[in-house]
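Hey team,

Filing this mostly as a record. A colleague (T.K.) asked me to run one chain through the structure pipeline before their review meeting, and I want the input and output archived in the tracker in case anyone asks later how it was produced. No errors, nothing strange. Just documentation.

Input sequence:
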Amino acid sequence: MGAEANEKSMIVFEQLELIPPILRALREEGYVNPTPIQAQAIPFVLDGRDLFGAAQTGTGKTAAFSLPILQILSEEQPEYNGREIRALILAPTRELAIQIGENIKAYSRYLNLRFAVIFGGVPQRPQVDAIRRGVDILVATPGRLQDLHQQGLVRLEYTEIVVLDEADRMLDMGFINDIKRIMALVPVQRQTLLFSATLPPEIKDLMGKFLKKPAHVEVSPVSTTVDKIAQSLYMVSRAEKRNLLYHVLSSDPFEQAIVFTRTKHGADKVARELSKRGIRAEALHGNKSQNNRQRTMGDFKAKRLKVLIATDIASRGIDVDDLSHVINYDLPDTPETYVHRIGRTGRAGASGKAISFSCEEDFDTLRDIQKHLKKNIPLFTDHPFHLDEKELIIKAQTSEKPIVNKRGDSSQRPKPNHDRNSQFTRPPKPKKKGRTPDGRFKTKKAGKPRT
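Output structure:
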């Protein structure tokens, strides 16, 4: 598969039988050679086949499905009058939906096709107005699409092509039932394209339900790391992680960096701490307003912002060239997510660095990641906060594990101590009046007779 992919990546877009208007737009974007996922997927989609594509972020899969969809819709004239939604592209996050819309806009500039992008977190009126004017392609997040359909503002009975992009992330975000309801709204006779970077059992189940005799395209083993990414592991106590992050960003020259945290609250805390120390950083997560998220992403893509603190869900759709560093401030819960994170650097043949912090609570997670990679991440000890494994084990045994509170933040909270001399000892329950120590009601004792 790898040799075949390399051979196909040397071809040019003209060899994929794309129409002149699309080729002209690609030339103006500076694209000459298709990526392996594009070279393999485009012919299958143009032939009208269902397709499953296993591809990581940054492999060019958006063009792999959008280019042939644009060609199919422009060449086939619908029998009905007016514009209806003929292609539906579902994306897990608003950032990814916006990015897909930007790509479609660039590729379709010489075609008589219209598209719209809809997502939650913003007023729906402008999105509804765009749909009412008529669109051929709708890019949507599942939640907003469900809302507009329930209001009778979106019709999907003429949809010919459905794309489920980053389907694994949609499952992680709990969209599985939304996807099933949406798929029930589109015609049975359709072309379905499903893209995923990982292949859990739930994805296989979706493939069996929604894809008919699909072509399989896999440009590399699912969830493998890029060889040009220099990975390193920093052992550090949990209390020193913010100091270590400042040390790394201050001492290691970098163009731009994405720092991944486990929680939204954690991202805000890290961004505030870095800003106080003179390193401008912005947090990106689901609790931010849409305007704030778009402004932050615009600054980061334009390189006006050097450090972005992000959670995994919010980071989907971030597509930045020449990203030099990815820093795992918190290790992710799954090895596949680790591969996703570090894959945002070292793209398009460039080199990059992936730095991961590991503290006393990460032993099991780190073991799973290294088992998945089939190698140990190189340990970097030349930093002022290094703790060896024995020291971390001692810390793990003598400190409490973080408790996730209602805000989703990991915070220290002492466990109740049953030592009578401890300040955390729970006081004994007061005995109810009128009861004996064994719980029975007291009886009145015969008093001495009054004299």
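Quick notes for T.K.: Confidence is low (pLDDT under 50) at residues 1-9, 402-427. The domain at 229-411 is CATH 3.40.50.300 (Rossmann fold).
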